[in-house]
């Protein structure tokens, strides 16, 4: 066992609704001791700034560029994360000196793997200054330098968690993270690892609901529950080259778009997109080394009973079971933030964050930039 460090992970995902934060005590390898976690929502004004940043970022050609108002958006995002850390520490009676490192994801505003270009806004130096804690950030870039897709990064943490699956668990197991974009992690015999983005997760449903109602998401799947699946619309999405290409690739939020207004009803659109989430996962899972027996779902999508129901019904046709991470003894809401804490410790130790089987990188590589407080 290596030196165990206390780390905080910060994650702001594709949905751009808030900051997930989690504390983890880990050696970056086999030791994983879960601490408290929390969620800090963005106020609507900040969320509007992040949404505008997506448009501004489209002009970026070199990842350090911050055109227009993107630099100010980055500063505000970093300060929001600093405020979340301070509040979290206060809530749990912790001091900055109790924490060895923060793993800071930032906010993805551009991801073009075919151009080896990924941009996550977030100023690691400013965060370290504001919190008084060392920060590891910018963990995707080195993977791309070595030929990887820059995503997904969470599989290294899934691998560590897999050692703690219940003994009676039916394997092979696949971890499914349903965030704005969904991704899969397969762990087979001999800890064989394969992972990739699987398609749209909550992103299209969120965009569909917000465009029609002004609400950020379909709470409890209530809108989708009142609709029906429009098969022709599902088929249109599934015809995307993403699902048929021989090489798995990571996704940007603009790779799939919601239906046009008026194309289907609000409820039918929500139900169809919920079904699409499950169908996309299973289609992408067909590229794994072997068929899964159990899908362990984390991320916000597990809280939408319509997504989970559609996914479970489709998976059952191939004899697989779908469960929420909590049924396997994990915290499905904190898992991504925990992963960023885990990856930060691995970065400090120079351990790989990505592998050929996860991002297509040429060899296992570490990553991240360390800023001392």
Automatic annotation (TrEMBL):
MF GO annotations: ATP binding; kinase activity; phosphotransferase activity, alcohol group as acceptor
Pathway entry: Cell wall biogenesis; peptidoglycan recycling; Amino-sugar metabolism; 1,6-anhydro-N-acetylmuramate degradation
Primary enzyme class: transferase
UniProt keywords, alphabetically: ATP-binding, Carbohydrate metabolism, Kinase, Nucleotide-binding, Transferase
Catalytic activity: 1,6-anhydro-N-acetyl-beta-muramate + ATP + H2O = N-acetyl-D-muramate 6-phosphate + ADP + H(+)
GO biological process: 1,6-anhydro-N-acetyl-beta-muramic acid catabolic process; amino sugar metabolic process; peptidoglycan turnover
Alphabetical list of NCBIfam families matching this protein: PRK09585.1-5
Family: Belongs to the anhydro-N-acetylmuramic acid kinase family.
Function: Catalyzes the specific phosphorylation of 1,6-anhydro-N-acetylmuramic acid (anhMurNAc) with the simultaneous cleavage of the 1,6-anhydro ring, generating MurNAc-6-P. Is required for the utilization of anhMurNAc either imported from the medium or derived from its own cell wall murein, and thus plays a role in cell wall recycling.
Protein name: Anhydro-N-acetylmuramic acid kinase
Source organism: Agrobacterium salinitolerans
């Amino acid at each position: 066992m290596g030196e165990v460090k206390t780390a905080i992970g910060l994650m702001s995902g594709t949905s751009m609704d808030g900051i997930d934060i989690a504390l983890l005590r880990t050696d970056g390898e086999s030791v994983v001791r879960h601490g408290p976690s929390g969620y800090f929502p963005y106020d609507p004004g900040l969320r509007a700034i992040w949404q505008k940043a997506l448009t501004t970022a489209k002009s970026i050609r070199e990842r350090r560029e911050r055109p227009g108002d993107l630099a100010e958006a980055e500063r505000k995002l970093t300060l929001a994360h600093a405020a979340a850390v301070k509040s979290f520490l206060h809530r749990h009676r912790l001091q900055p000196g109790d924490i060895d490192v923060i793993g800071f994801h930032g906010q993805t505003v551009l991801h073009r793997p075919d151009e080896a270009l990924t941009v996550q806004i977030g100023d690691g130096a400013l965060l370290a200054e504001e919190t008084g804690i060392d920060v590891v950030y910018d963990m995707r870039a080195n993977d791309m330098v070595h030929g990887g897709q820059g995503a997904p990064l969470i599989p290294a943490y899934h691998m560590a968690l897999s050692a703690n699956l219940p003994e009676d668990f039916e394997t092979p197991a696949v971890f499914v993270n349903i965030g704005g974009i969904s991704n899969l992690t397969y762990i087979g015999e001999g800890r064989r690892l394969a992972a990739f983005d699987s398609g749209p997760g909550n992103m299209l449903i969120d965009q569909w609901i917000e465009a029609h109602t002004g609400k950020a998401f379909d709470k409890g799947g209530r809108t989708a529950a009142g609709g029906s699946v429009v098969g022709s619309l599902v088929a249109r999405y599934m015809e995307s080259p993403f699902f048929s290409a021989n090489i798995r690739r990571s996704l940007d939020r603009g790779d799939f778009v919601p239906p046009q207004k008026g194309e289907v009803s609000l409820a039918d659109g929500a139900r169809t997109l919920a079904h699409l989430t499950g169908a996309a996962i299973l289609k992408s899972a067909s590229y794994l080394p072997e068929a899964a027996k159990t899908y362990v779902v984390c991320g916000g999508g597990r809280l939408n009973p319509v997504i989970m129901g559609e996914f479970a019904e489709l998976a059952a046709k191939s004899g697989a079971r779908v469960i929420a991470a909590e049924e396997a003894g994990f915290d499905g809401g904190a898992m991504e933030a925990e992963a960023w804490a885990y990856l930060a410790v691995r970065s400090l130790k120079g351990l790989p964050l990505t592998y050929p089987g996860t991002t297509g990188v040429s060899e296992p590589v570490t990553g991240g930039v360390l800023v001392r407080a």
